[in-house]
Amino acid sequence: MELLDANLELKEIQKLQGHTDRVWSLAWNPATAAADVPSVFASCSGDKTVRIWEESPSTRSWDCKAVLEETHTRTVRSCAWSPSGKLLATASFDATTAIWENVGGDFECVSTLEGHENEVKSVSWNASGSLLATCGRDKTVWIWEVMPGNEFDCIQVLQGHTQDVKMVQWHPTMDMLFSCSYDNTVKVWWSEDADGDWSCVQTLGESNNGHSSTVWSLAFNAKGDKLVTCSDDLSLKIWEADIIRMQSGDGYAPWNHMCTLSGYHDRTVFSVHWSRDGIIASGAADDAVRLFVESKDGSMNGPTYQLLLKKEKAHDMDVNSVQWFPGEKRLLASASDDGTIKIWELASLA
């Protein structure tokens, strides 16, 4: 059934309270996406803590299973699970990134990554879990190699952004790194060979159909051939690249602007995420969550996207993060300045 033809609603399943300050970011544990495993996600906050939430199979509700505290001394801005789900990385305004390991149900801080001059804004693992990227207000992006024994070696500091770097994100299948910044650009970082140096191979800026203000977030579709970015300029932009060419080892293929979704948001768009079945969610400063899908009509100029639904007043304040559950179920988690997390289900209207 076509999503656009279906009568769908974003139904609030649960509101999770516990953080005592704004909730900045969320991350589902990818190892808990299977149907027979209780799903787990992490949240991080201005209250300097990270919370681990687990679904109870009997009640289908999420409970806080652990509070990771007394490690970061300032806001925890970003969290990301390793692909195996065994390690959790947390990036903080205290200039450190902490690595946590789940040891028999207890989370222990097994490593602390230092080097950024000030606030670390985002952290991301590559697809194989062999590399970690961090970025921050010092305008740099760091690439760390994951070594045995929970050791992390900085292999390169990438410079190129002229302002605060808001987010880093690895491509879902290839070792290609993306960063977005207060300088209004997205930069693509690439290494020609496994041991070579990383360099900026493309900058998506205003001169090539990019954003005209801060780029807050980006996300990939499941296949990895499309990218969505969101910005302070109130728009979402969709980009595409010849992923087959890159995967075949034929060198870098550039990302091209496909379309811009404007007129839907009237406040800053902070977060964007693409579901495995092609639904784009956005979280914004107008307290709403919106869902977009590719419209099947498709114009001569290529695909277009349209609003599937808008959830007004999803939260009482800014929506900082939206994250689709990585498994079969159409669940979406959202985090807000109001200190709460909400779990939503995209369901057919009865």
TrEMBL record:
Keywords, sorted A to Z: Repeat, WD repeat
Signal peptide residues on this chain, from the entry's feature table: none
WD repeat copies, ranges: 16-54, 69-101, 113-146, 158-189, 208-240, 312-350
InterPro entries named among the record's database cross-references: CIAO1/Cia1, WD40/YVTN_repeat-like_dom_sf, WD40_PAC1, WD40_repeat_CS, WD40_repeat_dom_sf, WD40_rpt
One GO cellular component term: cytosolic [4Fe-4S] assembly targeting complex
GO biological process assignments: iron-sulfur cluster assembly
Function statement: Essential component of the cytosolic iron-sulfur (Fe/S) protein assembly machinery. Required for the maturation of extramitochondrial Fe/S proteins.
Family listed: Belongs to the WD repeat CIA1 family.
Record-given protein name: Probable cytosolic iron-sulfur protein assembly protein CIAO1 homolog
Organism: Corchorus olitorius
